[in-house]
Design goal:
346 residues, mainly alpha, three-stranded antiparallel sheet, 16 helices, elongated
Length: 346
């Protein structure tokens, strides 16, 4: 686990009282806020010494951070923007989009003011992120056990946001595995007429006309993710109307802040205009077609069977019939394909 020292507002501006995050973002232009929604996809992320265009402001910030590090005997270089901080910023913008995006009349010509306000917003977000990691140690064994349990739960919210040194390789592997699993899931749903309602409602959920169209659009989206990642970009221009309908199923008009980015995971894209979409997070997009699909199927299953939302029948069915009897069998059959392998009959 890599330890990150995230800069907080008080570290850089000890003489200044911080405001609410939205107050700083209200002073950032709408165009800049729109361009930063998918900023977590870019690599490398800028730091406190590279984010400013104005050399005077840059020099002042470096001086402030250096003073903080010297006073506190910090030898490792602090960071301003982490992947989690960028996702949190996107979540805040989208959950307050009426004020920040629709009614925002801030100018994008005052570059210095825009950069400073974004900088301060990140510093405040970092304080919230750091709170999750500020746990006191103890000599008491019971306290140490509790500390370990707290550390495990603390990282649940960020355990699957793709914090890797080489995002390209990780994204590529995840996409490949997801395509294989999604193809097998569709094959499973088509293997039994009793599951036909799951197949039909699944492709309708994603605004597609058939499961074949759904598979085609998913592969096209994954290809675009890799292309954009290579270009270090996150905005997608779309002309095809069917493809737009599919992408619209990944967009939400209402995002609410939470502790583990659940809303962003469920709706990992943002529609900027009629032809332009922003990828909020590439890893969330990919996970939508395996991790999230299970919960979509659960909702369909429970509605068909008239079960409560808390009922676990679907997961028993999914884990046994698909994961064990179908998915694992397919994998094992492909691994042990030689004639001299003897398969145990159940």
């Amino acid at each position: 686990m890599r330890i990150i020292l995230r800069l907080e507002f008080e570290n850089v501006y000890p003489e200044e009282e911080s405001k609410e995050i939205t107050e700083y973002l209200n002073s950032v232009s709408r165009d800049i806020l729109l361009r930063i929604i998918g900023f977590s996809n870019t690599y490398p992320q800028p730091n406190y010494d590279t984010i400013f265009s104005n050399p005077k402001i840059k020099k002042d910030i470096i001086y402030r951070v250096n003073c903080y590090c010297i006073e506190n005997n910090i030898t490792d270089k602090p960071e301003l923007i982490s992947r989690e901080a960028s996702l949190k910023l996107a979540e805040i913008i989208l959950s307050n989009k009426d004020n920040l995006l629709k009614d925002n009349d801030s100018s994008d010509t005052d570059i210095d003011a825009n950069e400073l306000n974004l900088f301060k917003a990140y510093l405040i977000i970092n304080k919230e992120v750091n709170k999750k990691e500020k746990l006191s140690t103890s000599e008491n064994s019971e306290d140490r056990v509790e500390l370990a349990q707290m550390m495990i739960t603390m990282f649940f919210s960020i355990s699957d946001i793709g914090v890797f040194d080489n995002n390209h390789n990780e994204l590529l592997k995840l996409i490949y595995c997801t395509i294989v699993k999604f193809e097998l899931l569709v094959k499973f749903l088509q293997s039994n007429s009793d599951y036909s309602y799951l197949e039909e409602r699944l492709f309708k959920h994603f605004n597609t006309k058939s499961v074949e169209d759904l598979k085609k659009h998913v592969k096209s989206l994954f290809f675009n993710l890799l292309r954009l990642e290579k270009e270090n970009s996150f905005t997608l221009l779309v002309e095809n109307e069917d493809y737009k309908l599919f992408l619209n199923s990944l967009v939400s008009n209402s995002i609410i802040e939470d502790d583990d980015f659940t809303n962003l995971k469920n709706h990992p894209m943002y529609k900027i205009n009629e032809k332009t979409y922003s990828i909020i997070d590439s890893f969330f997009v990919v996970d939508k077609f395996y991790k999230s699909v299970r919960f979509i199927l659960k909702e369909i299953f429970n509605k068909e069977k008239e079960l409560s939302t808390k009922d676990r029948t679907f997961f028993n069915f999914f884990n046994t019939k698909f994961s064990e009897e179908f998915l694992m069998k397919d994998i094992l059959d492909k691994l042990f394909i030689r004639q001299y392998f003897v398969k145990k009959l159940v």
